[in-house]
């Protein structure tokens, strides 16, 4: 296996240098934000009860706003997942009778019931309507988006940066800006699902009203144990914070009895850790394409998120691949993942996630819906060396010889 990986590493050396350059620029930005906000040991202290004037919580919000170049932010361990953060944002920005426009195709599977569910307190139950603009050739259909904006006059335009369980490219910051340029900002607010895309470019998509993500993905740096964020305009954050707790108290309360250090340290590590994950995805893409598999992105493409999609066209091959990734994990390596009815999904899901933080997809992991054409979505890798070792073991399991 070493000959295959050595050849791949040599072929990708110039791409890796580009990724390192992005990491350096982002690390400089994050460090400058820490210095600007005078981060000190007192910011890590735990709180209990109502946590009025919680300096750790409040400064963490300011730090994220600076790093993501937005006016304000909500950052909280009380947010359980990226889906939870997106739900909070949608319920904060939308009102009964409003229209939600999904500009980049059908949203991620776990949002289906949030938007379209019946009798469960969904947006639909509260009288919010939704229109979807399908992708065209895997990319946003700008002409169709423009036409739909004229006819449905949405209160919120939602953009999904990463692919979800779809074989399409992630969106670059420029792609997102092109969609934003079509929207009448006096009429519509723009909500961005930013999951998996943070720190993959030198800038973040701060052109939107609110961008949302999970702290157990890129911005948690493999250290944050839980949580999510919403960064955006002061106006948008003021609407959303009432859905985090209650409209009367917003961000004025919300304690955390463990210390805040992992959230600060995770953000500081995030540019480097994200670069490790991007390199891992690029390496898998190069090697599996060379073996005749269809991968996305291709190794020659821009990496606008941390995910490598590999099409297996066979359910058992997909399952075996995920099991091999699990076997190369530092935690629960002995476990054999099985497809199961995971909450929020329509299809059975298999998930290889031998991670220190449960479900942390910034750590090397792989998951997939068990449906044709049986695509594995590999992501994460807090060290590139781990990614190389896992790749070698996947090749061995496939019977590939040097």
Task: Summarize, please.
This protein has 402 residues and is an alpha/beta fold. 38% of the residues lie in helices and 14% in strands.
Can you characterise this structure?
This protein is of the alpha/beta class. 38% of the residues lie in helices and 14% in strands. The chain is built from eleven helices and twelve strands. It has a seven-stranded mixed sheet with strand order 1-7-6-5-4-2-3, with helices on both faces. It has a five-stranded antiparallel sheet with strand order 8-9-12-11-10, with helices on one face. The mean pLDDT is 96.
Number of helices: 11
With strands numbered from the N-terminus, the spatial order across the biggest sheet is 1-7-6-5-4-2-3
Order of helices and strands: HHHEHEHEHEHEEEHHEEHEEEH
Please state the overall shape, judged from the principal axes of the Cα atoms: globular
Task: Provide the gyration radius in Å.
Answer: 21 Å
**What is the distance, rounded to the nearest whole angstrom, between the alpha carbons of the first and last residues?**
5 Å
Q: Describe the sheet with the most strands.
A: 7 strands, mixed
The residue-averaged pLDDT reads 96
Share of β-strand residues: 5-15%
Instruction: Classify the secondary structure makeup into a structural class.
Output: alpha/beta
Number of strands: 12
Q: Provide the helix percentage.
A: 25-40%
Low-confidence stretches: none
């Amino acid at each position: 296996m070493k000959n295959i990986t050595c050849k791949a590493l040599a072929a990708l050396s110039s791409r890796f240098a580009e990724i390192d350059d992005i990491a350096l620029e982002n690390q400089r930005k994050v460090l400058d934000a820490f210095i600007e906000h005078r981060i000190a040991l007192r910011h890590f202290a735990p709180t209990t009860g109502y946590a009025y004037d919680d300096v750790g919580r409040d400064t963490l919000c300011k730090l994220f706003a600076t790093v993501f170049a937005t006016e304000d932010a909500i950052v909280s361990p009380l947010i359980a997942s990226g889906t939870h953060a997106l739900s909070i944002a949608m319920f904060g920005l939308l009102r009964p009778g409003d229209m939600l426009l999904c500009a980049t195709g059908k949203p991620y599977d776990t949002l289906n019931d949030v938007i379209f569910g019946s009798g469960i307190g969904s947006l639909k139950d509260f009288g919010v309507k939704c229109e979807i603009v399908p992708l065209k050739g895997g990319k946003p259909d700008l002409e169709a988006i423009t036409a739909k904006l004229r006819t449905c006059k949405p209160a919120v335009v939602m953009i999904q940066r990463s692919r979800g369980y779809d074989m399409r490219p992630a969106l670059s910051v420029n792609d997102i800006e092109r969609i934003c340029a079509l929207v009448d900002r006096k009429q519509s607010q723009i909500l961005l699902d930013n999951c998996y895309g943070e720190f993959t470019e030198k800038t973040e998509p701060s052109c939107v009203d609110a961008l949302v993500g999970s702290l157990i993905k890129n911005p948690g740096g493999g250290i944050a144990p839980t949580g999510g964020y919403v960064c955006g305009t002061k106006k948008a954050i003021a609407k959303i914070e009432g859905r985090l707790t209650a409209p009367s108290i917003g961000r004025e309360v919300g304690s955390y009895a463990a210390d805040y250090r992992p959230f600060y340290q995770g953000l500081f590590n995030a540019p480097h850790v994200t670069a490790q994950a991007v390199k891992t995805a690029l390496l898998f893409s190069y090697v599996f394409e060379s073996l005749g598999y269809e991968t996305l992105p291709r190794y020659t493409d821009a990496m606008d998120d941390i995910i490598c999609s590999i099409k297996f066209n066979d359910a058992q091959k997909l399952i075996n691949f995920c099991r091999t990734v699990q076997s190369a994990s530092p935690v629960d390596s002995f476990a054999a993942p099985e497809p199961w009815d995971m909450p929020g999904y329509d299809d059975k899901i298999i998930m290889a996630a031998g991670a220190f933080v449960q479900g942390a997809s910034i750590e090397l992991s792989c998951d997939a819906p068990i449906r044709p054409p049986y695509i594995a979505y590999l992501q994460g890798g807090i060290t590139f060396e781990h990614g190389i070792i896992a790749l070698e073991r996947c090749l061995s399991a496939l019977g590939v010889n040097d």
